[in-house]
Amino acid sequence: MPRFSDRLTPRTPKYRKHRASGQAVVTLSGHDYYLGPYATKASRTEYDRLVAEWLAGGWQLPGTGGSDLTVVELCAAFLRHARAYYRKDGRPTSTVGGIEQAIAPLARLYGRTPVAEFGPKRLKALRHGILQTGRANRTTINKRVRIIRQMFEWGVAEELVSPSIYQALAAVKGLRKGRTAAREPVPVPPVPVEVVEATLPHVFPVVADMVRLQRLTGCRPSEVCQVRPMDIDRTGDIWVYRPASHKTEHHERSRVIFIGPKAQAVLSDGQRQLVDVVQEVGHRLTTTGILEALGGKGLIVSEGTTKSNLAFLVKMGHLTNRRDVRPAGYGLPEWG
């Protein structure tokens, strides 16, 4: 399978002197560009312009895609763009993995093909090849074809691909249900309530409370994992939870989750349970010792979280003589 560089930012091309001609020169994507007499203001300005356009174009200069740009070069440029664009909290999102899966067979089969020669028939041939492997269902195949078209659309915006090429690929319609040999996806139904209830006694208490809270509020798993007292407005009878981060925040949408009396009880019971277990293991243990004891009961998962909770317990008077935690302004407020 073709391998693409993981580098997100390229090395800045050097401003150099061409000894034979005395010209300033810069090499971009394997091509030399002469800038004028070396060490002049005009050549420096031309260098700045070319490099800026090259970086903005995904390591390609506008209008240089033409007939010599190959499919694998377009794939590499698009993947660099995706790895830099689809990021959250400093890490690539799952979208990048989907793009890599979609363009891998394209680069393997048509990598050396000029972009100008990749048309609808070759896209259909690629789709048929994916279908023949039997590894992807109809909706997955359609999704991968959409990603490939998205890549060519991005290439048009970067002046790497002729608009007519993308327009031709857009004419390829998706596979329709019942009119293709591709297998249909198997629906994934919700887990029966009876199974959930029977499972809860066998998991750690914190995990059980997370499941209960999600069922009662309808929030996403990631929103359950990051819930913090500071994110919840508890002034009314119905609490209002606004996650610090959520799935659709890049669409500039707000996320509000309402927490009713039953869900409030889950949160409050979890905190009281923490107090009971800390008192059980003993307040004379070190922070590390309490961390291990609580971790064995499934209540705390990280040292940072443990210290924060211990600080809260000191502040509330449940623990005393704790010199390795900071009670003032460092703990968690009460849920209830």
Structural class given helices, strands, pairing? mainly alpha
> What strand order characterises the main sheet?
1-2-3
Helix content: 40-55%
Number of strands: 8
Specify the number of helices.
Answer: 12
Shape: flat
Cα-based radius of gyration, to the nearest Å: 29 Å
Question: Which stretches of 5+ consecutive residues score pLDDT under 50?
Answer: 299-305, 318-336
Terminal CA distance = 55 Å
The succession of helices and strands, N to C, reads EEEHHEEHHHHHHHEEEHHH
Largest sheet: 3 strands, antiparallel
Proportion of residues in β-strands: 5-15%
Roughly what is the average pLDDT, rounded to an integer?
79
| Whole-number count of domains | 3
Written description of the protein model:
This protein has 336 residues and is mainly alpha-helical. It folds into 3 domains: 16-56, no CATH class; 71-170, DNA polymerase, domain 1; 189-336, no CATH class. The chain is 47% helix and 8% strand. The chain has 12 helices and 8 strands. It has helices at residues 41-56, 71-85, 94-110, 120-133, 138-157, 163-170, 193-199, 205-217, 221-225, 261-281, 287-296, 303-315, and strands at 16-18, 23-28, 31-37, 87-88, 91-92, 232-233, 239-241, 257-259. The strands form 3 sheets. The chain has a 3-stranded antiparallel beta sheet with strand order 1-2-3, with helices on one face. A 3-stranded antiparallel beta sheet has the order 6-7-8. Helix 5 packs antiparallel against helix 6 and helix 11 (287-296) packs across helix 12. The longest helix is centred in the C-terminal third of the chain and has 21 residues, at 261-281.
